[in-house]
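Hello again, I could really use a second opinion on something today. My current little project is about how a certain protein chain folds up. You're getting the sequence in one-letter code plus the fold written as tokens. Here's the protein in full, and shout if anything looks odd to you:
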Amino acid sequence: MGANAMPSLQDLVAEPGSNRAVYFDAELSDRPLTLWSARPKRYDTSQAILFVFHGAARNGSEYRDFWLPLVDEADILVIAPEFSAEHYPGVGWFNHGNLLTEQGQLNSRNQWTYAVPERLFIALRKAVITHCGFYGLFGHSAGGQFVHRAMALGFRKSVVVAITANAGTYAMPNLAIPFPYGLGGVGLDDAAMRGFLSSRLTVMVGADDVDATSPLFPKEVEAMLQGATRFERAHQYLAEARAYGDRLGVHCAWTGVDVVGVGHDGGRISAAAAPIVGAALHGAAICQRQFEITH
């Protein structure tokens, strides 16, 4: 690439296996993202994309590597955006989506980092990386926080499968609890909650993710109210969602998955998630093809 050449998203599919590219989001153009991709051996533009979100270490390449042995069987293209600590510092910019200013005021919705995956997906379609009209989300630990909060706040237009795995804290489905530990104060109402509870969110947790001594385990008062371990918090999140659905008279479509014998392990949780996202993305692809044939 010449000195003045712009990075190309086509670099993400240059060869089977590991690839990378740099992406400049239109709304956050001074905060570049490194995109790490795992391309299956058999690749074409009919394949669906799974966005994978790293944990607090901001190690996008490592999370891409977790998926390298999984993409061929799942038959998907994995792209792991890296929200570097340099350009997206602290939990405010990543886990909590840049929703709030330091003074607690709402930023513009376009400035929320939760909006980045949809804009990136549109850019990937324009670059003819994929012809699919949908994608999936998977996030582990801090990335799990990113995924479920993005879904809650309505960034799910083209999402057909979303997995939040081993999250440390949750935006509980409770409008009386302020964001980020609840969904109060961010413009949601019961109608928005009906849509969220009807979405296809999978809450995945390692059955052995019970170590509360790690310095990365959130221990603030609001977090501890959600449970003593990540395992407890995942189950409380599901229980509160189902209870909220009952009050609204809407079925909570979420699924809970306990991964037996696994703790806070991004690699093993990714392996457990791969069949779920693969089945969902392929099911959506079949529906898309049938729709195109009949229309």
